[in-house]
Design goal:
Elements (H helix, E strand, L loop, with lengths): L24 H11 L13 H13 L5 H16 L6 H6 L14 E3 L7 H16 L3 E5 L9 E2 L4 E2 L3 H16 L8 E6 L5 H6 L10 E7 L1 H9 L2 E7 L5 H8 L4 E4 L15 E10 H15 L3 E4 H6 L21 E4 L2 E4 H4 L6 E3 L2 E3 L1
Parallel strand pairs: 1-2, 2-5, 5-6, 6-10
Antiparallel strand pairs: 3-4, 7-9, 8-9, 11-12, 13-14
Length: 363
């Protein structure tokens, strides 16, 4: 790392403490457990919180071209840290720590690429997930790209156990990998509301101990909300691997075929609009799904509710991507813009507040 002259300690620099409230015992305990850099024998490398700030400031400033610039910006980053501008946890834990934990990341949250509906695709993403979690990052995935339980697997001559059983594999990977580090792994699973296994996904956490390394969220479309409002039947669908409409109809048998937007079209039959041919497995009342969501959310605080069409409408990269997954949920140190200015989530829990988005306040 480029050389930086030692930073003056706050007391040496004649700076008065900017915080009227001293660090509490809980704060020091969290620092010692999660953010204090240690060597392979578990001995502290950061002798105190000030040393952690210096390590982070020096690492962030290391990209500058000259020693003078590195010192200039290092001092300013250090000032910001002392004044309470605390970065994401992986930055605080891992920036400047390469000599002691070279394989870690300064990125808190990531999202997986599309899970392809094949054994190779699923297991390759599981390996990527394990390496991502090992580096200390959280990760999100969409699992509704995997065929529903009971669907035929041509290469194996058998029936698949469905996406939730593969989610169990990712769950165990997260639990195993995170147990080797100082931070609990974080995963987010999203799932389309039109998938044939959607009700199983909604109810998954009613089973004791299942998917405890996941946050769960449903991808809710405008079309589904309209079906709920109109009290209509809701088709549960999944793409058909076919090269022609005749082949798709033959595979669907007596079930209808509809065209739907899909995150990938590899091996699926597509029309001129880019939609893929989907088999309608069955129809259920939209309000039944709605009530199941509401009941589970009330009882278990999950699944979450992502208005995915709205998300993509507001995505500045709408022309080159379609969002289908998100990183794990907001943490207590995340900042929220309110009508009283920026506040951390922990300050807002159990207190009424107005969130300000694009200049408009929302309760």
């Amino acid at each position: 790392m480029p050389d930086i002259r030692p930073f003056p300690r706050a007391a040496e620099a004649g700076q008065a403490p900017s915080h009227e409230v001293p660090l509490q015992a809980t704060s020091l305990d969290i620092w010692q457990q999660k953010y204090c850099l240690r060597d392979q024998q578990g001995r502290p490398v950061d002798r105190d919180i000030e040393a952690t700030y210096e390590r982070v400031a020096r690492a962030i400033a290391a990209v500058e071209a000259s020693a003078d610039l590195r010192e200039h910006w290092g001092e300013r980053f250090l000032w910001a840290l002392r004044e309470g501008a605390i970065p994401a946890g992986r930055i605080l834990s891992n920036a400047g720590a390469g000599a002691h934990k070279a394989d870690t990341s300064t990125i808190n949250c990531t999202v997986s690429d599309t899970l392809n509906d094949s054994m190779e695709g699923i297991l390759s993403k599981n390996m990527e997930a394990g390496l991502t979690l090992k580096a200390g990052c959280g990760i999100g995935y969409e699992f509704s790209t995997l065929r529903p339980a009971g669907a035929h697997v041509a290469g194996a001559g058998a029936r698949t156990s469905g996406p939730l059983s593969f989610m169990d594999i990712f769950d165990k990977t997260c639990l195993t990998v995170s147990s080797a580090g100082g931070r609990r792994g974080a995963q987010m699973a999203t799932f389309d509301v039109s998938h044939p296994d959607v009700l199983d996904f909604i109810r998954a956490k009613r089973e004791p101990g299942r998917l405890r390394q996941f946050n769960l969220s449903l991808l809710i479309t405008d079309e589904f909300m309209q079906a709920v409002q109109a009290d209509e039947q809701w088709p549960l669908v999944f793409p058909i691997k076919a090269t022609s409409i005749a082949e798709a109809e033959a595979k669907a048998g007596d079930d209808p075929i509809v065209w739907r937007d899909w995150p990938c079209n590899d091996g699926y039959l597509s029309n001129e609009r880019g939609e893929v041919a989907c088999r309608v497995y069955r129809e259920v009342p939209a309000r039944h799904i709605w009530q199941t969501i509401m009941s589970s959310t009330y009882d278990y605080a999950e699944p979450g509710f992502i208005l995915i069409d709205r998300v993509n409408e507001m995505n500045n990269n709408w022309f080159c991507e379609s969002i289908r997954a998100t990183n794990p949920c907001v943490t207590g140190d995340s900042w929220v813009h309110t009508n009283q200015g920026p506040r951390q989530v922990l300050e807002l829990v159990n207190h009424p507040f107005l969130a300000r988005v694009d200049g408009v306040d929302h309760a």
